[in-house]
Write a structure and sequence with these properties.
mainly alpha, 9 helices, single chain, 227 residues
Length: 227
C-alpha cells in the first residue's frame, strides 16, 4: 500500500528533476576556469592548490559516498525488505495449501468469520483455490523481482565502485605517472559504462515479464513508426 502511494509517476518526475539538478550542480566544478589543458591535451587542475585540494580531498570522497555508498546501501536495504516480503508470501501460500493459518492469517480470518457463514462450502472452496493460485503468481513475481534487484546491485557494485575508489585513492597516492593514471582512469571509465548496457540484457535473462513487456513495447513502436 505504501509503495502505491510513493511510487507514482508524479513522484518519479519530481525525483528525476531533483537528482538531475543536484548532480549537474555537483559536477559543475569541472567547468571552472582553473581547469586547464597541458601540452598533450590532458585536463589538469593542479594550478591552484586550494582548488586541487577541493577536487581530490573533498569532491572525490563526497562523490564516492553519493554515487556508490548511499545507492548500494539503499538497494541492499530494498533487497532485504523484498526478501522479507517474499518469505511472508511463502508462509501465506503454505498456510493456504495446508489448510492452516499463520498469526497474520488468523487475524484476517477473525475479521471475515461473519462473512464466511453466508458463503456456501463450494463457494468457499472456489475462493480458496483462487487465492492459492493468486498467491502463487505473486510469489513467482516476488522471486523474479528479487533476482532482478540482486542482479542490479551486483552489477552496480562490480562496475561503479572500482572507478570511484580509484578516484579517491588517487588523491592520497601520487605514485603513478600521468600516462599510467590516464590509462587506468580510461579503462575504469569504460568498465563503469558497461553497467548501463549490461543491465538491460541481465534483466531480459532474469525476468520473463521484462522480456514480454519489452517485446510488446517494441512491437507497438514498430507499428507506430511504420504505419
Amino acid at each position: 500500500m505504501k509503495s502505491k502511494l510513493i511510487c507514482t509517476k508524479k513522484n518519479v518526475v519530481k525525483a528525476t528533476i531533483a537528482f538531475a539538478v543536484f548532480f549537474c550542480l555537483f559536477s559543475s566544478f569541472w567547468f571552472c576556469p582553473l581547469n586547464e589543458f597541458n601540452s598533450i591535451d590532458q585536463c589538469v587542475y593542479n594550478t591552484n592548490a586550494i582548488y586541487y585540494f577541493f577536487l581530490l580531498q573533498i569532491h572525490a570522497p563526497l562523490r564516492l559516498i553519493l554515487v556508490c555508498v548511499i545507492p548500494v546501501i539503499t538497494m541492499a536495504a530494498a533487497n532485504i525488505r523484498l526478501l522479507k516480503n517474499i518469505r511472508q508470501s511463502r508462509r501465506r501460500v503454505a498456510a493456504e495449501m495446508e489448510g492452516t493459518h499463520t498469526t497474520y492469517e488468523q487475524q484476517q480470518q477473525q475479521q471475515i468469520q461473519q462473512l464466511e457463514t453466508t458463503i456456501s462450502q463450494p463457494a468457499r472452496s472456489g475462493i480458496r483455490i483462487e487465492n492459492i493460485l493468486k498467491l502463487r503468481r505473486l510469489n513467482a513475481i516476488d522471486r523474479m523481482l528479487i533476482l532482478m534487484m540482486i542482479t542490479n546491485v551486483t552489477m552496480y557494485v562490480v562496475t561503479q565502485v572500482p572507478y570511484h575508489i580509484y578516484a579517491v585513492s588517487r588523491g592520497y597516492y601520487q605514485g603513478l605517472d600521468s600516462y599510467t593514471n590516464s590509462l587506468v582512469r580510461a579503462l575504469l571509465l569504460i568498465w563503469s559504462s558497461l553497467y548501463f548496457g549490461l543491465g538491460f540484457y541481465l534483466f531480459c535473462l532474469a525476468s520473463p515479464l521484462f522480456r514480454q513487456k519489452f517485446a510488446k513495447t517494441a512491437h507497438a513502436l514498430k507499428l507506430y513508426f511504420w504505419r
